[in-house]
């Protein structure tokens, strides 16, 4: 039950972030709702397709997509307030990322995936919606930009689930430990501007 509540909250926050990008790009109502829906449930749909769950859960059942669309609609009308609450949105986004990373990894393990596949599917679940959002908006995905850490915290959270499963501890232990670790690392990277190193720049002289 707790995992479902956190999952719904994560969908709502991600959908709001996608809809805000649509507002910034001056999309119409349909475009904004599409951006919100794609961001909110995109990662979960990709996860389900990788696991052979067809139709994907968000397509087969109404709650996930409905929450994403309603969140996008609220953003359409209330986006000035959402912009003022951007720090809170970032905080909730970090929680959603952690929840999606660990839930994706756990679902992969439940479908007899290998450890490496579970970690990769956990990362995909966490970042997939954001990648789809950025591609639809015509931007370089945040995942590939030298910005704050995002995929790395997701990987750590998914890895924690795999490790806990490997030692035989209860599933909820991996969800809690992995979720807290992934969320905490993401928030720390935002607070202290942690980034991965980029390639050193060098000037190319003419011959």
Which features does this protein show?
207 residues, mainly alpha, cell membrane
Brief sketch in words of this structure:
This protein has 207 residues and is mainly α.
Mean pLDDT: 89
What portion of the residues fall into strands of 2 or more residues? under 5%
**CA radius of gyration:** 17 Å
| General form | globular
Q: What's the helix count? A: 8
**What is the N-to-C succession of helices and strands?**
HHHHHHHH
Give the helix proportion (percent range): over 70%
Please give a structural write-up.
This protein has one domain (2-192). Helices cover 76% and strands 0% of the residues. The chain contains eight helices and no strands. The longest helix is centred in the middle third of the chain and has 25 residues, at 86-110. Helix 1 crosses helix 5 and helix 5 runs antiparallel to helix 6 (115-136). The radius of gyration is 17 Å and the shape is globular. Keywords: Cell membrane, Membrane, Transmembrane, Transmembrane helix. Residues 5-79, 91-164 form the Glycine transporter domain. InterPro entries: Gly_transporter (IPR005115). Belongs to the UPF0126 family.
Task: Give the SSE layout.
Blueprint: H1 2-24, H2 29-50, H3 57-60, H4 62-84, H5 86-110, H6 115-136, H7 151-167, H8 171-192
Helix pairs in contact: 1-2, 1-4, 1-5, 2-4, 2-6, 5-6, 5-7, 5-8, 6-7, 7-8
């Amino acid at each position: 039950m707790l995992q479902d509540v956190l999952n719904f909250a994560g969908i709502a926050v991600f959908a709001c972030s996608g809809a805000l990008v649509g507002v910034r790009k001056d999309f119409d109502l349909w475009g904004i709702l599409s951006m919100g829906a794609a961001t909110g449930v995109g990662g979960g749909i990709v996860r389900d397709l990788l696991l052979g769950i067809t139709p994907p859960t968000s397509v087969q059942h109404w709650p996930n997509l409905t929450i994403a669309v309603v969140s996008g609609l609220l953003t359409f009308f209330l986006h000035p307030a959402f912009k003022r609450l951007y720090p809170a949105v970032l905080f909730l986004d970090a929680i959603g990322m952690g929840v999606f990373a660990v839930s994706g990894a756990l679902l992969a393990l439940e479908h007899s995936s290998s450890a490496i596949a579970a970690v990769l599917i956990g990362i995909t679940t966490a970042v997939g919606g954001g990648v789809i959002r950025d591609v639809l908006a015509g931007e370089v995905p945040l995942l590939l930009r030298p910005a704050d850490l995002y995929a790395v915290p997701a990987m750590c959270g998914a890895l924690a689930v795999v490790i806990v499963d490997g030692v035989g501890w209860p599933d909820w232990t991996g969800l809690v430990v992995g979720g807290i670790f992934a969320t905490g690392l993401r928030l720390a990277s935002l607070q202290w501007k942690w980034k991965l190193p980029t390639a050193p720049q060098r000037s190319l002289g003419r011959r």
